[in-house]
Amino acid sequence: MKNFKRILALTLALIMCVAMFAACGETKTPSGDNGDEVANDTPLVVGYAPFSSKFSPFFSETAYDQDVQAMTQLGLLTSDRTGAIILKGIEGETIEYNGTPYTYNGPADLTITQNDDGTVYYDFVLRDDVTFSDGEKLTVDDVIFSMYVLCDPTYDGSSTLFAVPIQGMDEYRSGMDSRLNLVLATEKAGYTATDFFTEDQYNTFWAAFDAAGVKFAQEILDYCVAAGYGTETDSVATVAANWGYTLAEDATVEDFWAAIVENCGYDLSDEGINYETAGTSISAFINAELGDKAAEYAVGVQTGESAANISGIQKTGENSLRVVLTKVDATAIYQLGVAIAPLHYYGSDELFDYDNNKFGFVKGDLASVRAKTTQPMGAGPYKFVKFENGVVYFEANESYFLGAPKTKYVQFMETASDDDKLNGVITGTIDISDPSIDEDTVDAIKKANGGELSGSKVYTNTVDNLGYGYLGIDANLVSVGGDGASDASKNLRKALATVFAVYRDVSVDSYYGERATVINYPISNTSWAAPQATDDGYKVAFSTDVEGNAIYTSEMTADEKYAAALTAALGYFEAAGYTVEDGKLTAAPEGASLQYELWIPADGKSDHPAFMMVSLADDALATIGFDLVVKDLANSSDLWTGLEAETVAMWCAAWGATVDPDMYQIYFSGNDTMAAGGSNYMYDIDDDELNQLILDARTSLDQAYRKTMYKACLDIVVDWAVEVPVYQRQNAIIFSAERVNLDTITPDITTFYGWMAEIQNLEMK
Fold first, then answer.
1. What three-state secondary structure class fits 476?
2. Backbone torsions φ then ψ of 168, nearest 5 degrees
3. How many CA atoms lie within 13 A of 180 on its CB side?
4. CB atoms < 10 A from the CB of 84, how many?
5. Nearest-CA neighbor of 608 among 660, 562, 652?
6. Cβ atoms of residues 500 and 724 within 8 Å
7. Which residues of the chain have pLDDT under 70?
8. CA torsion 48→53→58→60, rounded to 10°?
9. Within 10 Å of residue 645's Cβ, how many Cβ atoms?
């Protein structure tokens, strides 16, 4: 539902890593007895969720579509198994992981230079032996073309390269906008003709907008009914209420759409109307209504002065490129690793003349690029053949620079459910897939294997999910005297966090078993910045009392730990100003309460990894006179509505993460020159020292220094007690042990280095 969009938005920064997976690993060429190369003709079949046919390196959105385009593309940069960028891709870098040295190769070398004037040079040198799958040579012009597409004023894909502080970017993107944005910016009721669109174009768009909106709203209603949040006989108002909208009882679908527009405005982005999507984007519905006329609205029109080029994207030689940043931006490197799309395929060689500010297409008109959205082509390990009857067909790219793939044919097959994915691998119709690794899946795999998670039928590989589960506390709503930053308020939240934290182990183990672990800092364990148990200063979350003494000893039983946590909580409550008599809370200080509500999206049936934790905490707190009201939400979208309204004191949820652990989005509370991070309102944390540490970490390219800064950030967040880190769960990839040569699977698969990273080496039996 709607919260899925929030997680997706937090993970889109991974698109670059997906695109560049194919530029990794050692070159190994299969050969027959006579030394000739051979490839297995048995197709490798991979079970996937449904595709959206956006297979473009520029416009793919879902993870499934991104995997399709990544099979065909080559990224400018390469990452290792920890997500770190490889700077010497041409000769390769050898880096040890889990005691094993691995060599990583890519299409380019990168040198980063920080200058005295604050600018930063990213100098790329390309290898000269890479070709696209159609035999055309890959050159620096293809890189420049790809970057200009992503920076065009009308570009509306998921890349944010245009937001990187590249010299001259603002000047290039100013003075032009798409006709779509200009129409949206015009008030419907006050329309007057402008120089940017005709009255017919205006009226045609709004007719399509309204028709598309009704279908968009109907899809939401249908989704709710299919998910059990309403029945086909329920009124629109009844079903819409499960999506967080209050409508008149006689409301129509049109009324529901009008309410969405009133709530979101005319913003079509994932932070606007499309935040409400139940599957199909509002833009897709609008374009379907516009039909052939959709292209008219995607084209950019001149609205003012605009630079002819991006001065910071500089061709420095036949095989080299420099990107100039106006300031240090530690996250920029993840955006600069663009997929190198072929200029001659997605654009036009005739329209490329670097010296005369021509970059492969007419500025503001990406029609040629959009036209290839469903038919990707690049320099990746495989060639796209077709998408037909729910199956994407690939054929090996024999000219792939790391060697021709050993498996000639690959098929990505749409698979209806997790059960179908698993059963497909067991019965032989699917070779690889990624079902949710819940108890039922584990039991089914073990049954097929005769008791083991990996055996003769199914080989299971698990990696940590890029994200983590947590319990959040709003600093303003759970405070003393209305001051969320005071020591008293922090002690109140620490009292609660201490009780929650002690029940994490039993709750996570009960729900996930071995498929998740308890974490002690609010950061995904997949991150290089995550504190490790062997690091200096590492502490178990909320394991000290108000005096700073350890609450637990290694000899304690579980029950003794629960009792010790409750005793420590009383100490924190008393320090917060609560009246404690005979081990019971009898009065709360001004602005605080003896009762707080906690929301948990457990489908109304206690189905959540943290539900046992909060239930046990509820029971324990009740024994000392504190009432924790646990609200089990049948509709998870209610949580996000409540959080946005800042009416939820405590809640349970999960964060998606990105390759870089930048904390701006969640914890930065704003200063005189920079706005607060988009999700800061959830915690209402406001700390000048934390703000400065976040900014300091952003302005350094030294990973060791940044890790130190982020550890200090995490310590401050823990001290505010606005977030109780709970669990790090695992994802699974399963392989047919009967049909896939397991010895050829990418070794040491990680969150950042998936099974496809060395797909050119994968063999069928």
1. coil
2. 85, 0
3. 23
4. 17
5. 652
6. yes
7. 1-39, 187-193
8. -40
9. 10
Which pLDDT score, from 0 to 100, does residue 586 have?
A: 97
**Alpha carbon distance 539, 455 (integer Å):** 38
Which residues are CB-contacts of 90 (< 8 A; sequence separation ≥ 6)? 105, 106, 107, 108, 109, 125, 127
Q: Are 413 and 47 in contact (CB under 8 A)?
A: yes
In this prediction, residue 184 carries a pLDDT of 87
Secondary structure element (H or E) that encloses residue 10, with its range: helix 2-11
pLDDT at 193: 61
CB atoms within 10 A of CB 601: 24
252: which strand partners?
A: none
Which residue type is seen at 146?
S
Residue 256 to residues 236, 493, 638, 685: CA-CA distances in angstroms? 8, 39, 17, 35
CA 80 to chain centre: 19
**Token reading at 643:** 């959080």
Quote the CA–CA distance of 113 and 110 in Å, as a whole number. Answer: 10
Tell me: the pLDDT tens digits for 142-188? 999 999 999 999 998 888 899 999 999 999 999 998 888 888 887 65
Q: How far apart are CA 66 and CA 500, in angstroms?
A: 38
| Two tokens, residue 672 | 């005189």
The helix or strand, by DSSP H or E, that contains position 581, with its residue range, turns out to be strand 579-581
Indicate the pairing of strand 300-302 with strand 176-178.
antiparallel
Q: Contact at 8 Å (CB) between 197 and 178?
A: no
Going from the C-alpha of 299 to that of each of 145, 538, 751, the distances in angstroms are 18, 54, 38
Please tell me the distance from the alpha carbon of residue 202 to that of residue 446, in angstroms, as a whole number.
60
Distance of alpha carbon 24 from alpha carbon 89, whole angstroms? 9
How far apart, in whole angstroms, are the C-alpha atoms of residue 713 and residue 739?
48
Angle in degrees, CA 574, 579, 581, rounded to 5: 100
- Give the global pTM: 0.83
Quick one: tokens of 324?
A: 């100039």
Tokens of 698: 């952003």
3-class secondary structure per residue, 258-284:
HHHHHHHCCCCCCCCHHHHCCCCCHHH
Phi, psi of 188 (to 5 degrees): -60, -50
Q: Which of 300, 447, 443, 438 is nearest to 367 (CA)?
A: 300
| Residues in Cβ contact with 145 at an 8 Å cutoff, skipping those fewer than 6 apart | 341, 343, 346, 347, 352, 359, 360, 361
Query: Do residues 713 and 667 touch, judged by C-beta distance below 8 A?
Result: yes
